[in-house]
Amino acid sequence: MKPFNYAVIGSICALIVGILLMVWPDMAVNYLVVTVGVLFLLPGLLGIFSYFARAKARKEAGIRGVFPVVALGSALFGAWLVIMPGFFIGILMYVLGALLVLGGVNQLVGFLSVRSYVHVPAGMYVLPLLILAAGVVVLFNPFEAAEVPFIFLGASAVVYSLTDLFRLIRFRRRGGQTEIVVTEEEKEG
Q1: Is the pLDDT of residue 163 over 70?
Q2: Is 144 exposed, middle or buried (0-12, 13-18, 19+ CB in 10 A)?
Q3: Does 43 have pLDDT greater than 90?
C-alpha cells in the first residue's frame, strides 16, 4: 500500500474515533476507567501468580517468602475499577471538584493577602474565579463534567482528521506540479 493510502486510513480512523467520542462521551469515560482498572489488575495478578509459581522453589531453598500484599491490592483495586467504573468516576469527579474549589479559593485568598503589599491587577482575579466556578460546576454536575474533556477530544480529532484529509487530497492532486527552487548560492555551497 502506498504511503498516501496509510495516511488516508489514519485520518479516517481519527475521524471515526472523534465522532464516537462526541456522540458517546459517557461511554468513553467508562472505558477509560475500565482500561485503567485492567492496567492495575494485570500486574497484580501477575505478581500473585508468580508468588505461587515460585513457592515450591522457595520451599526447597529454605526461603520463606512474603506474600505480595501490594500485588493483591493492585489486583483488587483493578477489579473494582473494572466492575464498578461509574462509582469510581463519581468519587473522582467529587474529589476533582473539591480540589478545584479549594484551589480557586486559595488563589483568591493569596491575591487578597498580598494586595496590601503590592498592586494586584483586576485581571489576576479572573483565573482563580474561573477555577472556583469550574469546581462548583463539577461538584453540582459531576457526570456531565466528566464527559466534557472527551467531547473536546472528539471535536479535536474530527478537526484534525478533516484538515489532514483536505491536505492529503489537495496536495495529492498537485503531486508532480511542485517545483523546488534552488538558488545559485545553494548550488555552490
Answers
A1: yes
A2: middle
A3: yes
Measuring CA to CA, how many Å separate 100 from each of 83, 105, 135? 28, 8, 5
pLDDT-derived band at 179 (thresholds 50, 70, 90) equals very low
Query: Over the chain, what is the mean pLDDT?
Result: 82
- Break the chain into its structural domains and give their ranges: 3-173
Distance CA 172, CA 13 (A): 19
The reported pLDDT for the residue numbered 180 is 47
How far is CA 76 from each of CA 29, 48, 55, 69, 71, rounded to the nearest angstrom?
Answer: 20, 11, 22, 10, 9
What interhelical angle do 126-140 and 142-173 show, nearest 10?
110
Are 104 and 128 in contact by the 8 Å Cβ rule? The answer is: yes
Nine-digit cell at 82? 473494572
